[in-house]
Amino acid sequence: MILIPIPSSDFDPSEASLPWKLLSESNFKFQFATPDGKKAKADERMLNGKGLGILKSGFMARRDARDAYLEMENSKEFQNPIPYSKIREKEFQAILLPGGHAQGMKEYLESKILQNVVVDFFHSNKPVAAICHGVLLASRSIDPKTNKSVLYEKNTTALLQKQELFAYYTTRLWLGNYYKTYPLTVQAEVTSFLKSKEQFKTGGSLSVRDSLENLDVGFTVVDGNYVSARWPGDVYQFTNDFKSIL
């Protein structure tokens, strides 16, 4: 069974639902976890595009992700999450950490319970998959044996600084800090936890999103039992690589 922890609201619908759908089709089972054990809701703006203006088609979740989210939202496992406090690493074979950028993500990104859970998965050498802001949660997970991040010696990627700043500066006049979760960018903070800045990989083109028919467009970094990706445009390759280490 694969664990997907998410916040109560504002997680990215593409980064949670597409891996869920694709891996469910391969007969993998899932358990969702939320702060209080109540059903969560994804970032509505990513589903309806409200307020994105002329950038709507490029920023919001694409049709396949919206369809997958609707299916996931109606699934038994999504409607019956466990609270973070009830997570036991030994009960799961792997963990998937979705991202999201709106302010509701902070309870997930700052959860000491989840950070400790991530450490447990790394200690057990179980597969860990993190995408976009999910990598920020992993990077903040400090191993008490070393007092360093679990990613300290790992190669990784995450939401790129140029992606985050482009989205922020092109929408801040009417959306404020919607695309700026923290003053420090994701790339800058994640890199600060690494042994060397060279471990952070930026990948290639961001102009096209990947698909089942065009996996190579996506970019991921696989380091042992850890796989990371940048944004929803990498999600098919990300899921494929995660599946390969399960």
TrEMBL record:
Gene3D superfamilies per the UniProt record, alphabetical: 3.40.50.880
SUPFAM superfamilies (alphabetical): Class I glutamine amidotransferase-like
This protein's name: Thiamine biosynthesis protein ThiJ
Naturally occurring in which organism (per UniProt): Leptospira bourretii
